[in-house]
Amino acid sequence: MTSQSYDTFGRSGDSVHREMERPGERTPLLHHQYEDDSSSTQSWPSNDDSPAYRISDTRNSTNASARRFMTLPRSLSQASFETVDSAGGDAAPPTVVRPNRRTLNTFQGVFCPVALSMFSTLLYLRGGFVVGQAGLLEAIAQLILAYVILVLTVLSICAISTNGAVEGGGAYYMISRALGPEFGGSIGFLFFVANVLACALYVSGFVEGVLQNFGTSGSFIKDGGGLPEDTQWWRYLYSTISLAFCLLICIIGGAMFARTSALILLIVVVCTLSVFISVFVENDLIQIEIPSTNTLVYTNSSDNATYGNYTGLRAATFRGNLFEDYTRDYTSNETLNFATVFAILFSSVTGILNGANMSGELKDPSKSIPKGTLSAVCFTFFTYVIMTILLAGSCDRFLLHNNYVFLQQINFWPPLVVIGIFAATLSAALGNLIGASRILEALGNDQLFWVILKPATITTKSGNPYVAVLITWFLVQLVLLVGSLNAIAPITSVFFLLSYAATNLACLGLELASAPNFRPTFSYFTWHTCAALIFHQVRKYLLMLDPRKAHVKYWRPQILLMVSNPRQSCQLMDFVNDIKKSGLLVIGHVRTGRLEDHQVDPVVEITPHWLKMVDHLRIKAFVEVTLANSVSEGFQHLTRLSGLGGMKPNTVILGFYDGSAPMDTLIKTRPRRRRFFGEVETGTYSEIESFFTSPRDVDTQRNLTATEYVRMVKDGLKINKNVCLCRHFHQLDKKQILASNVNSFIDVWPTNLFQPDTAGFFDNTCLFMLQLACILNMVPKWRARTTLRVFLLVNAQSENTIQKEQKLDMFLRQLRIKARVQIVSWDHLQHYLQDPNIMSGGEEDASKMQQYREVPENFIKAVNELIVANSSRSAVSFLYLPKPPMDSSDYAKYLSQLEGLSNNLHPTVFVHGLHPVTSTTL
């Protein structure tokens, strides 16, 4: 076998990934890894004549000998594979490289956005608020608690970001690739909503800063002028204008904001240093007027001005602010407590993911995200601690309670604080608007929500997802209707806490599951930094599924459905998917042949096409394909080995073996082309239709004889599996049944018609038939349009019909099966049997109920006509399947009589059960 050479050209893997990236060619999350790439039709090398593949630099691929490329999905999605033709021949022309979006370094792309977002509203607008309500000790404790949560989450983000190449979508992209679409889609939605709420929060903070300084009673406005704010609609108008400004910058491009973020951060740092210096410089008493909008202080418009005191650094002031003093918030008029104050504090420092959200535009995300985020977290934490201590030692409690924008009035140059407020809040809003749009674009690219998010994937030529920005802007605009900053903050904190918990949960699952490919280069991550058990618990409970501990109350069908050609079994696969009752469904297929006759394992080649069929039919099933010398041998392999641990199939379902020509049922599943932000993809259907051959003709030779088929039925029972044989399912029109105004029936005939003398008994097979029919009737769509019927065959001349009906009805009630008992007399069929009294029954006959006994053909025909006469509105019928005869010479007759019994019926299931599946106990 030709070796695979990996050439890094003396550079780190990350630098190679950067140079090779082709933006916009990311594999959707729901697309399987084994799907053929449009740019490559080669499989992995299997012999010495096959080409070798190497990871190569796209800049070195544009030479005289053009090469072909293949994109690896997920963590290596930025890498391309280069075909090296052993014969030196030319290959296809190189792929056109789109403009590179990765232009940001650690400081610009991570440190600055994270620091700015974590300063946001807390630094200038809510720092004094937290100290005034919680006191210095609780404020420091709340800061430590918040930052512990943040640091633990940052460690998880650093671990995931250093476990492979990272594309756009930030933490959502990393987690979705690590734990799959279900987990990733949920976390992505949480991240998106949290960023939308945070953007609205910071815009509200910006508007509050504007009005507190330039409103009708603002600190920079005299003689009653300033911006009007007598109603909430004025505040909403200012919020809308501010958000429109953010939208304009985002439409121009997030990179523009990132390039200016360093300058904005410098402004914030200078403004913050001015506050620190002012506290030490201004040591005299300063009386600061309480805003007239504070209705808790000014109960009437004629009240005289009230002042709070800035004392400078004083021990008495410090002692007075040590402990909590929770009061009412003058902006929302709500009484505060530890939880509400912590929610406001925490919502202001949740920007730790803003750097990760820019992962698609970072030059080296695996290095930039850990370094930039951790540095920003440390920087902002120490800034907050210093600010908290200085405020607690210099401002009295009354001022801290009743004026949230007092800092500029103690500053040696007041406009500096105003500039800081505007820069911190507006930049934080921008960061979250950009981050939310990138997450939405990633969700759209991964096709997790069908075509609903398809517009979010539309980008400019430079790669800016402007439609995602517009959608995010619209949602933020709706959130702004909530009102004040303090009203939006609690729900924002909830969504961020959920997001962080999910992130930690993802890392913990990977670590405790000992995933072989989870090898982050970030050395400070350990599973002790996150709490919960998900994947480890799944493995634990799988091991606990010991079949020896199974109880009939918890029985559910675990089904192995054997399929020869899926094109003739589409309705059957959909039907079996309905009766599995959230249990295991395995689609089994046997490919005949010997492995030594193939250069590559044919199972590996065909399995992806079967999985595409499962996806196309929208059924929840696993696929097991095996290679064997014969179908019956492969059937034995699959029956024994399918499943995992205690989750192994307990029921085998086969299509029926008869002389009729199979129908092509795949054409009924052809998707209709619709328009909803574009056309629905129909390529999957075409791929399936072209790969799987059309059903055989009647004259085509089969690879399975009738004797082998009956032997498979016998083998299934011998391996201790329930067995079902399904016939006429090409006739099943589920849509018509569910759309009809007339109810159909699900029929159960719990009698071994080859042993008429056992008609008065119920065994495990009868109960299994009832259970399957009941499960089908429990499916919501079937329940709405079908009624369950149980047929009771009686001899009206010799049996008490009413008594037997009452007993059966009581038995069904004990089993909690809602069904209609249908009495059918079959006295007129006695003369077809050699012994006229064979239908009278007796206690001694129960032991032979499961056995097959040949009966006259005219009796089979008469019973078939009886069933047909009572099945005009039947959707599905369940019939009793006797065990195959002991002598193989009787197999053909056995199969022939089963065929005669089910001729001209609607879809029919022959059932044989071995174990109890129902319980009357609680």
Automatic annotation (TrEMBL):
Pfam families: AA_permease (PF00324), SLC12 (PF03522). It is a multi-pass membrane protein. The lineage of its organism: Eukaryota, Metazoa, Spiralia, Lophotrochozoa, Mollusca. This is Solute carrier family 12 member 9. It comes from Batillaria attramentaria. Gene3D superfamilies: Amino acid/polyamine transporter I (1.20.1740.10). The chain crosses the membrane at residues 107-127, 139-162, 183-203, 236-255, 262-281, 335-353, 374-392, 412-434, 466-488. Belongs to the SLC12A transporter family. Residues 39-49 have a biased composition (Polar residues). InterPro entries: AA-permease/SLC12A_dom, SLC12_C, SLC12A_fam. Residues 1-58 are annotated as: Disordered. One of its GO terms (molecular function) is chloride:monoatomic cation symporter activity. Keywords: Membrane, Transmembrane, Transmembrane helix, Transport. Residues 571-656 form the SLC12A transporter C-terminal domain. It is found in: Membrane. The keyword Transmembrane helix applies. It comes from the Eukaryota. GO terms for cellular component: membrane. Residues 14-25 have a biased composition (Basic and acidic residues). Residues 116-531 form the Amino acid permease/ SLC12A domain.
